[in-house]
Request: fold
Amino acid sequence: MASDNGLSQKSLGFVSVRQRPDQGYFGGYLLVNSVARPLEFHCTVPVQSTRAQSILFGPTLEEFLCGEQIARALLSRAKVQPQVVLVDAPAVLCARQWIDLPILWITGESASSVDHGFQYPGCQRHASQYAQTTQGPYTFACLDSYRGDLELVDWMIEAGAMELDLKEPFERIVEALAEAHPRSKVA
Amino acid sequence: MNEPHSALTIQVSSEYYQHTDLQQLPSSNLDDLSSLGLWEQALSWDALPRMHQPCIDLSGAVVRQTPKVFAIQLSHPLPKTIGFSFPESPHWTMKLPAPNQEANNADKTIKQEDSQDQSAPDPTSEPDHSNPNNNGKKTRLTPPRNLIRLEDRLYYVLQPPLESIVQNAKLTFPFQPFPYQMDGIAFLYSRSSAILADEMGLGKTMQAITAIRMLLLSGEIRNTLLVCPKPLVTNWMREFRQWAPEIPIAVIQGDSSKRAWVWSNPQAPVKIANYELMLKDSAIIDDESLYFDLVLLDEAQRIKNRNSTTSEIVRSIPRSRSWALTGTPIENSVEDLVSIFEFLSPGHLSGDMHLKSLGHATRDHILRRTKDKVLKDMPPRLYRNADLELTAEQRASYKTAEEEGIVHLADLGESVTVQHVFELVLRLKQICNFDPVTRSSSKLERLEADMEEIIASGQKAIVFSQWVSTLDVIRDKLARFNPVEYHGRIPSSRRDGVIDRFRNDPSCGLILMSYGAGAVGLNLQFCHYVFLFDRWWNPAVEDQAINRAHRLGVKKAVTVTRMMAVETIEQRIDSVLSEKRELLRTLFAEAGTPTNLGLNRKEIFGLFGLNVPSRFKGFAA
Reply:
């Protein structure tokens, strides 16, 4: 992938799923080009779990909603296929089982103060179920069963993506979710 | 319960949910399942036999029949999504060079910046090549309030912070912009009609240039027309070279055929015209093929009279975006602002709007910052009111002129006009500067004394007057300070040379300026003394004059000496000006209605205790 030179071949995807208490889960998917300009944006309507889902999925409910439902829906809608999709919560990683795209959970310091009442979803998966690597200020993790996805970190270095602030696009997603779903309208 | 089962396994499509079988659920949850009708849903599958009353024995102790296993495919439709695609401009794409090439380019970048410093030195500012991102601030674009469609709003919300755009596009600046300047750039970037009304000296020029630069980079605009006063054309060219050296500039000047060619030249993304040309080139402007993505008016108060030909022609220029730069959106009355809005967004304002409504209607279109708010560390302006007694000769001349003048006005009776009053005002003000016979002047004596001290301390000074004839007298009297002149009699072609000499010649300690020529667009931050030898009618013009020296980059406090002859017409005008000074502050603070919007007819006549002639009564002031 790193050898591709077309513009669309140098795109990055960012998926963030956030929760507002009593309102449900909101997902946003931002595709950016090599200089972090937006190419596409997709967001879901608010998603609330049913009673049955809560019972059936138990502690894995958030992975089901965030990964299998929301992220899967978002990633399947995009026209541009990015090289790699970065997510900011581990609960989203399980979308990887449904989508043939490398998905990495990125952690690291962020100066973000963007909130708009959104909270991160939880995840009860044990740390041993992730493979991870650290590069610069970031730690990238993926499902252990897809550890090959970590090779995309090398591509990002080669393609210059590490020069970008890789946490910043998540702030844009949250801003966009707040724009699309103002509190007063959702509540 | 025809066919009871000991257990039921729910297979879900993800491997991670396989442990969630019903054997692990407490019986209460099973009741929940039943109550939710899940059984009915599960048992409606084609291959499964219908059970009316499912029975589950979790103990496993007694199994009366061979257990059956039901695989239940839970159907969860994916949530609805909405999506938008955004146009991608190739200008934004970053070429990803090979490692060696990248290193070479990095060297080039540094060298380019160095050479830029040498070729375009800023004598008052320390060049700073650090990235604006370094301070950690992220300046985001915000959609204007009048943008309705979600897609349009998200376009701006989803743009990277300006600092990232700068960094990713490898843009360089001669020195690091202040955070408030980044805010100003973001404000302009996303607006199709905007007034940047920062106080003079806060860098409106730089903010406009950088916003244009970023819009050109994004491909959102391709051709821009900048209209400014003629003396400022060279200043704008210099600023573009400094802040956006990669942008080709075409100045519309020369004979008519050359100007016609430049107007239509597609090669230059930025064209600079001056207000004085508008009338001459009105036929070209009327041409249907002429269109600009952005028209930017500098010193936009030049179109404050909406009925002027210049104003009409400027408003007729076909365009998508309209920006205005002015430190004084209101010079005399709110009508000035309404006129500027006729250019920005025709019909958005009307002159009869209440001040509060006006403030509300303009809030999203005007950005105004003052130095005391955004540059708390900037050296202050120190005002000295030099209230001077006229010399004996001046007093005698003044008294005679005033008495004769008032008698003359009284004799005119009902035929007296504002013009008659103005003539007397001007006559008296000139006497306040110099005695017409002896050239005796208390102001000049004071200026001379102050200049001795300023020159002795190695400093320089600016003297403003409304009359070139006054500047002539000062020039002759203060010749030993090697003064240079900058006023209407100095041709435009020589003016840059005058500024260069004042800036670079150590023996030249004084520049004599008229308010008209020297009040706008000049950067004289190295000069820390300003003298207002006489007072202009409008405090905004005085502020502009003072801000030639008190602006970004100034290292020391600027001392402003306001000269006023006491017990004269100057003192009477000063009290009126003080009220006018409150107008801007009042409008932008949205607090109350000012009691006085300008020097109206009643006040002009009142300067000499005259009543407004009856024929004017009933007319607006």
Notes: Residues 61-77 of chain A form the longest helix (17 residues). The longest strand of chain A covers residues 12-20.
